[in-house]
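Researcher: Structure prediction, please.
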Amino acid sequence: MNDLTTTAAVDAALGANSLALTKAREDAALFERLKAAAGLADRLAKEGQALTALKLEISTAEAKAKRDALFAMFGKITVSGCVDDGLLSANWTIIYERLAYDTQAHRNIMKVFRVDGFPQLERHHPEAYRYLVEANPERIPDAIMNLSPGNPAEAIAILCQAKARGYLRNGR
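Model: Predicted structure follows.
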């Protein structure tokens, strides 16, 4: 402390002291927050993990509900074709039933749709393709499923690529 013989000097010292005290209190509050920061970070990390798991659970349930609602619109689905002349020369016909609005009945009724070939089904009837691959893979002929056992979407993709190329790769 300097010469504190005048009120002006004491006032100046009080002002400096007040600023220093305010800064020290801010530093002490910061120090306390920093001491608690590790615990807070752990709690927030756990909370974030729980929220992420909850989001995954909810989004999975929503996706399943959406899928179930979509698939509820479908009835029978069949795949037919003759592979006597080889898998690549076979012409596949997919016939499926789906709810569609009937203008005469003024309501949705099951209507039959016919699609020639898997590329047409995938490109122009993606919901029916999904219904076949996800809900009824057992309807896909074994000759096609043997291209990728256990993975109907990949088996159909391999078939479509092979038909476009004109041959099957890797002994398929």
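Model: Residues 3 and 9 are 7 Å apart (CA to CA).
Researcher: Thanks, that helps.
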